[in-house]
Design a protein that fits this description.
The structure holds 2 protein chains of 2 kinds. Chain A is α/β, with parallel strands linked by helices. Chain A has a single domain, classed as TIM Barrel, CATH 3.20.20. Chain A contains 13 helices and 8 strands. Chain A is globular. Chain B is α+β, with helices and mostly antiparallel strands. Chain B folds into 2 domains: 63 residues, no CATH class; 95 residues, GMP Synthetase, Chain A, domain 3, CATH 3.30.300. Chain B has a 3-stranded antiparallel sheet with strand order 1-2-3, with no helix packed on it. In chain B, strands 4-5 form a two-stranded antiparallel sheet. In chain B, helix 3 crosses helix 5. The longest helix of chain B is centred in the middle third of the chain and has 23 residues. Chain B is globular. The termini of chain B are far apart. Classes of the chains: A alpha/beta, B alpha+beta. Chains A and B meet through loops of A and strand 4 of B.
Chain lengths: 392, 180
């Protein structure tokens, strides 16, 4: 990808795990060796990088193939955390009735949802994603995107009263260590030549859209609800502390409304409007957002923030079998480009294709086709906009 | 007296060999009579809608939701009936799985029911059934066995559950009264 190429095509993070990888993951969870698992994961990462390249993805990820999910994997990367099932957390929950409603709505058992919970002071091991990058860089020459759990999510979903407060009295106390660890990770990833670091902050949608709803929750352990404004301000502060003084790497933040089910009715809905003032206050380059699903609302919400930040525009739904035609994607992008600088538009799916290892929302075959259709749309858009964009 | 040698092997937190012996012993009339009952509970009023049930060396509290002018100190009796059914089916599932050598990793049973006519309980209607119109129970299980085997274990658990079958079969309840 050239530096100035318009409409870069990228993924949000996860790629469907093949059956052999899920089998290896289960084996590791029941006592198999780490070495054994990593060898299997190596193969899956190579396959997923190849699939993305063949589909025309300009900025691939390693598909999060080594991760159980986009945030729980930190439990293996940091000391002081324990991966706990919601069923194990029930004794510590203050608002157990709310969790019960959510579990019923999702029709899932409490043992199926796991969250990394801080039980001791956090200690570092060998970084969060550095091993992933070392391997992926050997197998692709394209710029690499690395998704990391955002500082707010990492703090709020891993701090649990009754378990974490012995070490960190309040979430804000834990946040100091989280930010310190993430900053160190960013520096290390930058040194390894990572071009794009995406912080995942999906629970922000729970904060904004979940208030009136018992439909769903993003992560296992979003603790008792506090004032949404305070939460959003905390999210902005932690993000800005994490990236303060950092340059030479593109920072993005990804916010979606849930990606564990193909049942649209159990996922959150609402436009980005109420959240945008806060996202715009984050000192990051790009907002990686879902816009293929109608649940995300309309693009007009960006009009008042014209060209403030790059937009990673979600143009395909990762949870459907239908392949969106390139013309549909082109039309959607043009809609945004009417009032937004095309040089600031990246194209991606709404979310990952397998956020949770055991809950792929699609097959690798369809994921590849969906990325190929985005790449074809990007080619058409480039033809139309190349040369025109600079004058805008 | 020499203690019988207990197997070190455990499955699902139980000792399969020991369990097999216990189940086998039920064929003896005196053992069977002991296990069959009578099972007892003494429920003592604590004020308001709060009650406490004493069973052997155990005690369980029950109350009603705050919306009913109660203190909501504990789950209500009707919720505990659902829980008792769920717990009883849990026991049955684990028993049958262990007998067959199936390792269970996780299991949960969710139960729910709606009252048929709660106005009868409230004294606002003379007719109808104040009890549950029906109860739905769903098992979630992660275990080392194929789906057909696990379905069979679930069937055995439901059909063999003393509590669930008491509800399903409408066990006769005789009531007495004594003024003190």
């Amino acid at each position: 990808m050239s530096e100035k190429q318009l409409f870069p095509v990228t993924v949000v993070g996860s790629w469907p795990r093949p059956a052999y990888l899920i089998q290896a993951l289960r084996k590791r969870q029941s006592g198999g060796t780490e070495q054994e698992f990593q060898a299997v994961a190596d193969r899956a990462v190579i396959e997923c990088l190849n699939a993305q390249e063949q589909a025309g993805v300009d900025i691939p990820t390693d598909g999060e193939q080594r991760r159980d999910n986009f945030y729980s994997f930190v439990v293996e990367k940091l000391g002081g955390m324990r991966l706990m099932k919601v069923s194990e957390l029930m004794d510590f929950m203050k608002d157990r009735a709310r969790y019960e409603e959510v579990l019923r709505a999702l029709d899932v058992p409490a043992f199926a949802i796991k969250s990394p919970i801080v039980v001791e002071r956090l200690t570092e091991k060998n970084g969060l994603a550095q091993d992933e990058v070392d391997f992926a860089k050997k197998h692709t020459s394209r710029p690499l995107k690395v998704p990391l759990p955002g500082p707010y999510m990492l703090t709020r979903s891993s701090w649990f009263e009754g378990l974490s407060n012995k070490v960190y009295p309040q979430p804000e106390d834990l946040a100091k260590d989280v930010v310190r660890i993430l900053r160190k990770e960013v520096l290390a990833l930058k040194a390894k030549g990572v071009e794009f670091i995406q912080f995942d902050e999906p629970i922000l949608s729970q904060i904004v859209y979940g208030a009136e709803s018992t439909e769903t929750f993003m992560c296992a352990a979003l603790p008792n609800r506090r004032d949404p404004t305070d939460e959003l301000e905390l999210a902005v502060r932690l993000m800005n502390e994490t990236v303060e003084g950092m340059d030479g790497v593109r920072f993005g933040v990804h916010v979606c409304r849930g990606n564990w089910s193909r049942r649209e009715e159990v996922l959150l809905k609402g436009n980005y409007g109420p959240m945008l003032p806060y996202l715009m206050d984050m000192n990051i380059h790009q907002l990686v957002l879902e816009f293929a699903t109608p649940r995300a609302g309309e693009l007009e919400v960006f009009k008042e923030y014209k060209n403030d930040k790059e937009i990673g525009l979600g143009v395909v739904n990762p949870r459907t079998d239908e392949i969106e035609p390139p013309a549909q994607i082109v039309a959607r992008v043009k809609e945004l480009a009417k009032f937004y600088d095309p040089e600031k538009i990246f194209l991606n799916p709404d979310c990952g294709f397998g956020t949770f290892a055991e809950r792929n929302v699609n097959t690798a075959e369809i994921a590849t086709k969906k990325m190929a259709t985005i790449a074809e749309a990007a080619r058409q858009l480039r033809k139309e906009f190349q040369g025109k964009a600079a004058g805008q | 007296m020499t203690e019988p040698k207990m197997s070190e092997e455990t499955l699902n937190g139980l000792h399969p060999e020991k369990l097999k012996g216990i189940l086998e012993s039920l064929k003896q009339p005196d053992v069977l009579a002991g296990v069959s009952g009578p099972w007892k509970s003494r429920v003592v009023w604590q004020g308001g809608f709060h009650a406490k049930a004493y069973m052997r060396t155990h005690a369980v509290e029950m109350d009603e939701p705050a919306g009913l002018d109660a203190c909501d100190l504990a789950a209500s009796a009707h919720e505990q009936l659902l829980s008792a059914m769920g717990a009883c089916m849990t026991v049955g599932f684990v028993l049958n799985a262990t007998k067959r050598g199936v390792k269970i990793h996780d299991m949960e049973i969710t139960l729910e029911g709606n009252f048929d006519n709660i106005l009868k309980w409230a004294g606002l209607d003379d007719s109808g059934n104040p009890g549950y119109r029906g109860v739905k129970a769903k098992l979630f299980v992660r275990a080392d066995a194929d789906e057909a085997t696990l379905k069979e274990l679930w069937k055995l658990a439901v059909e063999g559950s003393p509590v669930t079958q008491s509800v399903i079969r409408g066990t006769p309840v005789t009531t007495e009264f004594q003024m003190v």
